[in-house]
Amino acid sequence: MAGRFAPRTPAVPTPRTPGGIGPRTGTTSAKTRTWTPPGDAFELGLVLGPLRRGPADPTFRTAPDGSAVRATRTPAGPGTLRVRAAADGTVHAEAWGQGADWLLERLPEMLGASDDPAAFVPRHRLLAASQRRRPGLRLCRTGLVLESLIPSVLEQKVTTIEANRAWRHLVRKYGEPAPGPCGDSSDGRRDSRMYVMPDARAWAMIPSWEWHKAGVDAKRSDTVVRAARVARRLEEAVGMEPELASARLQLIPGIGPWTAAEVLQRSNGAPDAVTVGDLHLPGIVGYALAGRPDTDDAGMLELLEPYAGQRHRAVRLILLSGRTPPRRAPRMPVGRIAHL
User: Fold this and answer.
1) For every residue of 142-202, which 3-state class applies, written as one string?
2) Cβ pair 91, 83 in contact under 8 A
């Protein structure tokens, strides 16, 4: 704890990498891997996009050259992964930290190698057109539950802006700088670094007033703490069938079908994990497929029935189509309970 409050000292500016992420350093050597995705189309941004929690996510960055950088906590320890898709269709990856080997070994699975886009048969013209325009969609599978569970819990019943702000605050305060060059900053600013999220014990030890400062109410913070205390059992859900995995997650008070689906879409790459209980999604699906913006969860599931087994992919394609109902009410106000 003492090191957390050490006084800051200005950093000496150092040259940045061509991708614009982090400085060059001779003390960190990256492990590398090259992989060729199956099929003719692959779009890195579509595959990894769901892992990013807002434009200022301290665990995820994109670079001008199109590469994506992800800092995460693996079973082997913290790791940073930089992925770039080349013009010839190959994917080049670099990894740093204790989790480098784990990340590189599971690179194909994370990028959708176990996904089967051919299993999806569009039955609506809108979905056929969306699939034709974005053939590079693959469903990622991180193999990590807690890193998707915690930000999903933070998103419960609040705006995305509030949830992303809480995630940034807590990861920067209780996480650790990402391994490799991305954990440094060329200008000495803490918010320009990338961070690995805290481990399960650190999440469970965050005091109540820090949750309050982050804008997280007691119901959500208690859910995170309960999940962190049984993190090992929750991580076992990666090897389960989606129904059993969802049931395992929902054993934790405060985790319902909405949160479980949001987690399994990322950790397990579950193609049928449709999100129910969402404020906006039923209206979007209903408007896109039937012109009914007032559709509820039951109506959404009825419209998605022809895509049983692939309902999550169907929803992703609907969202990618851009066909959403016109806004009829003001945006939900952004709250700041930290000011109370």
Assistant:
1) CCCCHHHHHHHHHCCCCCHHHHHHHHHHHHHHHCEECCCHHHCCCCCCHHHCCEECCCHHH
2) yes
The span from the CA of 204 to the CA of 225, in Å, is 5
> Are 282 and 299 spatial neighbours (Cβ–Cβ below 8 Å)?
yes
How much is the pLDDT for 332? 61
**Looking at the DSSP assignment, which residues form a beta bridge with residue 259?**
none
Rounded distance between C-alpha atoms, residue 196 and residue 178, angstroms: 5
- Residues sharing a CB contact under 8 Å with residue 244, sequence separation 6 or more, in sequence order: 237
Task: State whether residue 250 is helix, strand or coil.
Answer: coil
User: Is residue 251 within 8 Å of residue 223, measured between CB atoms?
Assistant: no
CB neighbours (10 Å) of residue 199? 18
pLDDT attached to residue 40: 79
pLDDT tens digits for range 7-20 = 333 333 333 333 33
Task: Give the residues across from 78 on adjacent strands.
Answer: 73
In contact, 274 and 311? CB cutoff 8 Å: yes
Name every residue whose Cβ is closer than 8 Å to that of residue 303 and which is 6 or more positions away in sequence.
285, 286, 289, 290, 295
CA distance 270 to 268: 5
- Using CA atoms, how far apart are residues 207 and 195, in angstroms rounded to an integer? 20
- Give the residue with greater pLDDT, 39 vs 325: 325
Side-chain-side CA neighbours of residue 6 (13 Å): 7
Question: Which amino acid would we find at residue 173?
Answer: K
* Burial annotation 305-339 (CB, 10 A radius, 16+ → b, else e): eebeebbbbbbbbbeebeeebeeeeeeeeeeeeee
Segment 326-338 mean pLDDT? 68
Instruction: Say yes or no to pLDDT of 186 above 80.
Output: no
Rounded Cα distance, 269 and 114, in Å: 8
Q: Is there a contact between 23 and 187 (Cβ–Cβ < 8 Å)?
A: no
Contact indicator for 112, 269 with CB cutoff of 8 Å:
yes
Q: 171: burial class by Cβ within 10 Å (0-12, 13-18, 19+)?
A: buried
